[in-house]
Design goal:
Blueprint lengths: L2 H13 L4 H9 L2 E7 L4 H6 L4 H10 L4 E5 L8 H13 L3 E6 L9 H21 L3 E4 L10 H22 L2 E5 L8 H11 L4 E6 L7 H8 L3 E6 L2 E3 L5 E3 L2 H10 L3 E6 L7 H19 L2
Parallel strand pairs: 1-2, 1-10, 2-3, 3-4, 4-5, 5-6, 6-7, 7-10
Antiparallel strand pairs: 8-9
Helix pairs in contact: 6-7, 7-8, 8-9, 10-11
């Protein structure tokens, strides 16, 4: 076919529908990356025996792609701290892709919900300075004497208002399944749907559901913007058991999820020993199941 024939055929090509098969294949193609959640080293960060810069160097040493920085132990949020940390990560090929913050969106009064929105906005500015495109937030507990439906409506309100600001910075807010108002997959999905913003999604924690763990993980996956992987989960009796990571990562990949799997280590073994070993396992699984 010469150039003239190609040009003649272009209107027909434009009018023809795209093949469904490649499009569906692309939608289902997973792209998995590894990360460490700073909360794994909470005791050392709190005591000052480890710094956030140390986490960057650890990521390089153990071939980890990214960091989810729990902000609880930031010395401050000034440029003097944030920008050198961003530079260090960039120069070492480590992405600070997420920060994790505290929030309690089920506040009874409008004034308290205003404060929640202001606090989330503050952390959006911090995330922007670090180059992070995602923030993990909590919904909160259901206040005594308040119905779950009413408490959920407050979370929707706070998230909607926060998302308006997040959108101006290009940052996604990930609501975590963290007990309280987000104890069940059905409720957290309902909240995210009612917020109805491309800047609000689920921060899926694989160890936080108390029952029907795998079905609830599967329900949340289509809405997940970040996944935090736990070493342990609760069985139907409530006992803590080792989570089957091969099963979890296979489920995540099958859903077409594209993004990070951040190890948030909370088990009893020393994280300085356990995290490097578990990151090696997680890295092998992401490579095994990434399409």
């Amino acid at each position: 076919m010469n150039r003239r024939d190609v040009l003649k055929s272009m209107p027909l090509l434009a009018a023809a529908p795209l093949s469904a098969t490649p499009k569906e294949s692309l939608a289902k193609k997973s792209r998995l990356r590894t990360a460490i959640c700073a909360y794994s080293f909470r005791d050392a960060l709190k005591a000052g025996t480890m710094t956030y810069a140390d986490l960057v160097h650890m990521s390089v040493e153990h071939d980890v792609d990214g960091l989810d920085l729990t902000v609880y132990w930031f010395p401050n949020t000034t440029n003097d701290f944030l920008l050198p940390l961003r530079r260090l990560a960039y120069r070492n090929g480590v992405e600070i892709y997420s920060i994790s913050v505290r929030s309690e969106m089920t506040r009874r009064t409008p004034e308290l919900r205003d404060k929640e929105v202001a606090e989330v906005k503050k952390w959006i500015d911090v995330a922007e300075k670090l180059g992070a495109g995602h923030i993990r937030v909590f919904g909160g507990s259901v206040p005594k004497g308040t119905s779950e439906d009413v408490a959920a409506s407050w979370v929707v309100e706070v998230l909607k208002r926060s998302a308006e600001y997040a959108a101006t910075k290009g940052i996604i807010l990930g609501l975590e399944n963290h007990g309280g108002i987000t104890e069940r997959a059905e409720r957290i999905i309902d909240i995210v749907k009612k917020v109805d913003s491309p800047w609000v999604a689920i921060n899926l924690d694989t160890g936080n559901f108390n029952r029907n763990v795998f079905p609830q993980i599967e329900m949340c996956l289509p809405y997940a913007a970040n996944v935090q992987v736990k070493a342990e989960m609760r069985d139907e009796s409530g006992a803590r058991i080792r989570q089957d990571w091969d099963k979890v990562v296979q489920m995540i990949a099958k859903s077409g999820y594209k993004g990070y799997l951040a190890l948030e280590y909370e088990a009893k073994e020393d994280p300085a020993v356990a995290v490097p070993r578990m990151m090696k396992e997680l890295r092998a699984l992401t490579r095994k199941y990434s399409a």
